[in-house]
Structure formats: structure tokens, C-alpha cells
Amino acid sequence: MSIFIDENICNGCKGLPEARCERICPGDLCYRKENMKAAIRDQSACWTCACCVKECPVQAIELKLPFQVCSSGASLKARLKRDKTIWTIRDADGHQEEFIIQAKCLKGDT
Amino acid sequence: MGIIPVDTDILIIGGGAAGCFAAVEIYKRYPNCRVVIMEKAHIDRSGCLAMGLNAINAYLNPGQTPESYVSFVERQFEGVIRKDLVYSIAQGLNEVVKDVEEMGLPIEKNEDGTYRRKGKRSIRIFGERLKPILAEAVKKTPAQVLNRVVATNFIYNGKRVCGAFGYGVRDSMLYVIRANAVIVATGGASGIYRPNNTGEARNLMWYCPWNAGTGYAMGIRIGAEMTSFENRFIALRVKDVHAPTGTIAVGAGSRQVNARGEDYLELYYKHLGGNKCLTQHRLLATVEETKAGRGPCFLDTTTLSETEERRLKEDFLSMNPQIILLWASEGMNPKKRPVEVQGTEPFIVGGHCQSGYWIDKERRTTIPGLYAVGEVAGGAPKKYVSGSWVEARIAAATALEDMQGRNLEDVDDEVIQKEKARIHAPLMKKSGISPQQARERLQKIMDEFAGGVSMSYALHEERLIEARRLLKLLKEHGKDIVAVNNYHLVEALECIDRIDVARVLVEHLIYRKETRWACYQTRLDYPGKDDNRWLVFVNSVYNPDTDEIKMIERPLCS
Ligand SMILES: Cc1cc2nc3c(=O)[nH]c(=O)nc-3n(C[C@H](O)[C@H](O)[C@H](O)COP(=O)(O)OP(=O)(O)OC[C@H]3O[C@@H](n4cnc5c(N)ncnc54)[C@H](O)[C@@H]3O)c2cc1C
Ligand code: SF4
Ligand code: SF4
């Protein structure tokens, strides 16, 4: 598995013609099912690029490594702020570590 | 499948690093121009830059000059490079970086305000959002962006390129885009060789899995001249997650050791330069250590301080988040365990190595109306992201100049119907082979007969001749590929493109009868480098009427 979508958290990006994860995935892998929950059409095609993880406004998507490569179950989530990205990594024992990283200069905006 | 006609002055195919920059450049010079970007994914996060970058790998730090840059690249590539192209790139590097900084890219600074360097020709950036930043700059221009439209072929009247066809993945429409100039910027080719990771992890690879070599294939099919496909790129990367090693080796200064903890480059490969050896020899040494029973090899991260380790993780989150997951798993923390490195499968790229369109200094291909920039353009290795921007700038100026006074060409309905039928064919079939089967067949042939990972990258004539035969058969099977929906249709078209690229690649590998570049092009039957005979470019032109690939030699130029 490369991404895990928590259906309890996913709100289906209701009101948008295309879900945010669906719009962003560079491999066109995310889509909305009939119940308006997001899904990935082929885990084996995932680049684990985390674009969908970053784009989801409610953090319904986690990044994981395929079992073949790593069996521990660590997972990564992200939140985008205007000028930074906040990452939360959770290891196999449930320990969490947060990283706040600059991603954009805002001076160009104003 | 309906038809959507689009008319424009300049069509850019591929809205990645180079494509986005080209659009911005065109409007800077000529605000009234009509520009269309045709992008297979969404320009906000597409291609190589989707995950982000943590460094600009081509930059002239104080003390470097365009001349010193050209000498460096020439040495790294054993004398075979297009010095004119590399020089033109080197001249523009610092300027384009400044432009992208102004778009909003945060660049790490020293206390005195100068850029923080990472080695002689590289600077550190906070580039997680580099792609959205470029996309935003495009959105400030009037350029028309067609997201989720996959380019399938050029519109070619036998004399010049007059536009391109694209398939709309969301609307199932055929886009017939007429243009006075077409800039191709679709990146390189992954998926030609069997990847290191397979099955569920098959796309956990270094290069972007959706840069399928379509830009090359479209050019090949109209007889555009291609260069140096035999100069494959194989990257030394962190095992399994394929994160770049430079971030650890140069960024954090970690030593490279074998399984015995020895500094193997200094100990066994001093004749190649030890720790100062060429990039390709670092890879060669690592492959050789495994053969000698001293592998696997590692970057020794165990001596990092807490602060350095955290810094390293931050660097990777902006470029390769996968490695953070690896490090969070049991016993894999970089301070506890050194980081294992390995070679990737071979890729065909013009940004790290030099496979691609044969172009002139103004970035014109050999077909009038068609310009090539970035990874898809050949002859100028080590251009990376910033060199791709410089090429985009040069091509934008050339295209604008060349198209003055031109009018759009009519497109025969017959030509449109033919392309429509070709694209539609996999959807019409009820039985045949799946895109997955075709892809796996191609990758097996290339891995076993054309020097993939399982052959330690080595090549020799007899196997290559067999690859040639098997690929010809596989091309025939291209018409048997079945697609059940648009997603599979794109996969099917990618397979067909990859086969066209692989066939040209194999001809190049057969033709160069020496070993010019370790691992990238190691001939077991011609193990030596032969400067008397082979200080030349190996080029090719495909003839669609006879299905033959003609090989051409071009001299080095100054
Ligand atoms: C993992 C990785 C890390 C890298 N790290 C660095 C780094 O730290 N520093 C650095 O300087 N360089 C780095 N590079 C190199 C740099 O990213 C590339 O050199 C640069 O992105 C090349 O630009 P491009 O426009 O040619 O290709 P891309 O940026 O990949 O753009 C190609 C575009 O074409 C689109 N496309 C492909 N096929 C079609 C089609 N049929 N129809 C329409 N559109 C299509 C793609 O979706 C994509 O948007 C890295 C590359 C990779 C893969
Ligand atoms: S972006 Fe998030 S909320 Fe929206 S559909 Fe995707 S997973 Fe659900
Ligand atoms: S991680 Fe990347 S490739 Fe995988 S589903 Fe998300 S956006 Fe697509």
C-alpha cells in the first residue's frame, strides 16, 4: 500500500466538480466513488509522491510504503499553510514527530 | 470521440519545469501572443517536480564561470557533449534562478544574503512547492492551459510540424491543436527497463513514472533526428525508496563505505579518482563492490548529530518524502543504521545524461516548426532544472522570431480521422493483451537483453541483436493492446511510445562499439574507450515508411 484514505475523514470534496486529490495526482490515480469517498485505482501505480496527501484539506490521506519495501507501517501526513508545509510522521510505535518547513516566499503575492 | 479544434500561435507540450517557464518567457517578450500548454496531468503538480526539490543542481557559485562549467560537464561525459549547448545553458543559469526566486521560490541564504551553496555548482532551496510556484506564474499570463490532455502525435505535413493531437482524459475528446510553432517539453522516459521494485511497489522509482518518453516517440515517428540514446542514465540512489544520495553525501558530508565499513572508493578505486571520481565511476565502484562480495554499500549517517539528522529529514521532506517513512521504521533510523545505496534501473533522460532531440543552439529540432527543451532535448547533460529553464528561455525567443509572418496550416480531415482511429483502437477491442502485459514484456526484454539491473547494466552485441528482434515482434503486438477505460487507454498509448523509444535505444546501443560511459554504456565485447574512433555523436532517424532506423554520426563541435 502506498496511500491510505480514511473514509471516515474524507468529505468527498462535495461541491467541487473534481475532488482535490483527483485533480492533483500526477498519475491520475485518485477518483471519487459513487458514495463520494475518494479511492485509488491502482496502488501499484502510486509514485508515493504525497501530492494528494498535501492537497487534501482534511488530512484524510496518509502516505505509507508498500509492504514489499517496508513492513513497519509508519505513516506520513501533511498540511499546507500559505508559506509552509507541516508534516507529521508517525512511526511503528505510534511516536509522532512534526516538521514545519518553509515552502514559499509570500512577498511575490502582496 | 468528438473533436475539439484549438488554434494558437505557440503550442507547448508538457507543462513541467521547462514548459511552464517557456510560457512565462513568451509573454514577457510578446504579451499579445497566443500560447496553449497541453499537459497530461495538472500543471500544479506534474512531472519531475511533483514532489519538490531541495537544490538547484546547475548554478554558477562564486569562482565558477560558463567556461569552467563546460569543462566540468565535458570531463564528466568523457569528452562527448555539445559544448555549444552546454555553454549557452551555463551563461543563463544564474539569471533564471533569480527569476524563479522572484516568483516566490525560497532560496537558502547565508548571513550576508548570498545563496547557501551545496558544492561548487549547486545551491540549497526550500523547493517543496516549486511546481505550484511555477504554475502560479503561468496562471498570471493569458496562456490557455489544457490539463489532463495527453499529447499523442504531432500534426506533420511532411515538411513542418503544424500542431499536435491530444486526447482529453476527462472529456474523451480529440484535441486538434494547430500552431505556428510547437515546443516539446515532455521530459524523459521511465519504465523502459524492469524497475528495481516490482509488483505493488513497481512505481516507487526515482524518475517520474508518467514521463513515458512520449515526446521522444512523437519525434521518432515523424523522422526527427535523435542523439545519444546510448548515453543512458542510471542513478545511485537510496535503496528501495530511490532518494537522491547527494543530499546525504554532499549536503550532510557522510562517507561512502562498503559492507566492511571501508572507504571503498579510496581503497579500491583510486585509479578512477577515489572519492573525487566521476559520477558514473561512483556507480561503477558500487556495482563492483557487490560483485566482489564486499557489498552492499552505504552512506555512513551514524555520525550525524541530532541537529544534522533533523536537518537531513527536512531536506528530504521537500523532495522525497518516502525516505522519511523508511527511516521511521524499525531499526532504520539514519543515526542507528547507515543508509544503503544502489543503482536504479536505466532511464532515458536529457537532463542528467544527454539522450534526446538533436537541436541547434537556438533549440530548433531537425523538423521545421518544432523546438525541444528540458529533459527531452539531447546533447547537454547535467542541465537539471535550471538548465531546463534556460533552454525554455532560448526556445521561447527562437519560436517567437521564427513564427513571424506565418499562417496556420490546414489539417486534412483524413489525417485527423487516422489519428482518431489509432487512439480509439485499444478501447474498441474486446480481447487481446493488457497494457500491464505489454509493459512487463517490454521491461523483461530490455532488462535481460539490453543491459538492465539483472545484467549489472552490461551490454554485448549478441544479446542486443536479440533485443532488436524481440522488440520488433512486440511492436506488432502493440495493435493487440486492450483498454477498458481512459486510464488504461493512456497506459496503452504509453506502452506503444515506450516500445518506439526502446527500439531506437537498442540501435544506438548496438552502434557505439566501445565503452564510453561506465554502466550507462558498458560493452563487454568492446571494453575499452576508443578516442580515435568514437569521439563522435551517435544519432538516428526513423523512417516510418520502411520501419527502418538509420544511424548517423555527427562530429563533436566547439
Ligand atoms: C526525483 C527527481 C529529483 C530531482 N531533483 C533535482 C534537484 O534537486 N535539483 C535539480 O536541479 N534538478 C533535479 N531533478 C531534475 C529536474 O527535475 C528536471 O531536470 C526537470 O524537471 C526537467 O524539466 P522538464 O520540463 O524537461 O521535465 P518535467 O519537469 O518532468 O516536465 C515534463 C512535463 O511533461 C508532461 N508530459 C509528459 N508526457 C506528456 C504528454 N504525452 N502530453 C502532455 N504532457 C506530457 C508531464 O506531465 C510533465 O508535466 C530531479 C528529477 C527527479 C526525477
Ligand atoms: S481531497 Fe481529501 S476530502 Fe477531498 S475527496 Fe480527496 S480524500 Fe476526500
Ligand atoms: S501519492 Fe502521488 S502518485 Fe500516489 S495517489 Fe497520491 S498523488 Fe497519486
From TrEMBL, chain A:
Segments crossing the lipid bilayer: none
Cross-referenced SUPFAM superfamilies: 4Fe-4S ferredoxins (SSF54862)
Domain 4Fe-4S ferredoxin-type: 1-35, 36-66
Any GO molecular function: iron-sulfur cluster binding
Keywords in alphabetical order: Iron, Iron-sulfur, Metal-binding
Organism: Candidatus Jettenia caeni
Official protein name in the record: Putative ferredoxin
TrEMBL record, chain B:
UniProt-listed SUPFAM superfamilies: FAD/NAD(P)-binding domain, Succinate dehydrogenase/fumarate reductase flavoprotein C-terminal domain, Succinate dehydrogenase/fumarate reductase flavoprotein, catalytic domain
Cofactor field: FAD
Superkingdom of source: Bacteria
InterPro entries: FAD-dep_OxRdtase_2_FAD-bd, FAD/NAD-bd_sf, Fum_R/Succ_DH_flav-like_C_sf, Fum_Rdtase/Succ_DH_flav-like_C, SdhA/FrdA/AprA, Succ_DH/fumarate_Rdtase_cat_sf
Domain Fumarate reductase/succinate dehydrogenase flavoprotein-like C-terminal: 439-555
Organism taxonomic ancestry: Bacteria, Pseudomonadati, Planctomycetota, Candidatus Brocadiia, Candidatus Brocadiales
Entry keyword set: Flavoprotein, Oxidoreductase
Keyword presence, Chaperone: no
Keyword Membrane among UniProt keywords: no
Swiss-Prot/TrEMBL GO biological process terms: anaerobic respiration
Residue ranges annotated for the FAD-dependent oxidoreductase 2 FAD-binding domain, each copy included: 9-379
One Pfam assignment: Succ_DH_flav_C
The protein's name in its UniProt record: Adenylylsulfate reductase alpha-subunit
Alphabetical list of NCBIfam families matching this protein: PRK06854.1-2 (NF005331)
GO molecular function: electron transfer activity; flavin adenine dinucleotide binding; succinate dehydrogenase activity
CC terms in the record's Gene Ontology section: plasma membrane
